[in-house]
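Deliverable D4.2, example record:
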Amino acid sequence: MTPTKYSKPTIYLHWFSAIAIAVAWVIGKLMGDLDNSDAKLLLIGIHIALGTFVFIFTALRIFYTFKNPRPEMIQTGSAFHNFLIPFIYYLMIVIIIMITISGTITLFSKSLGPAILSGNYLLLPPIGFNIYHYFHELLSNLFALLLIFHIAGITLHFLRKKENLLHRIS
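Output generated by the structure prediction step:
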């Protein structure tokens, strides 16, 4: 029998990831407007920790999603929408992984380690352009756009079909 909900680990990882991603995204935006300071160094540390958790949560979520039975794919009545559902889902997973990889590369390419490890913001590099950081930011904004599509799809499905999809992941 096909379950009507995702497994408990998948559900918890989904929501923990959602919270961590939202907070990391906001912190990322806040850091961009700050000069090098103790506050910026603290935000960088929190951002890195959240990114690490998101990567671990995503890896675990992939494991549990394929280990445990899943609910059937949503059928919307539209071939295009039926295509978009898994496409956006898998694209979001790939982008999360790419964001964490680009964040790690940014960490090393900007030589942030000494400042983070010592807690001394004076060791932060001067603010300037870094292609890896640019790519990291671009991917983060693309993910935010996909998240809007994800939420809009759930909302439209509810409005059209009167089917609450949140019960599958709560």
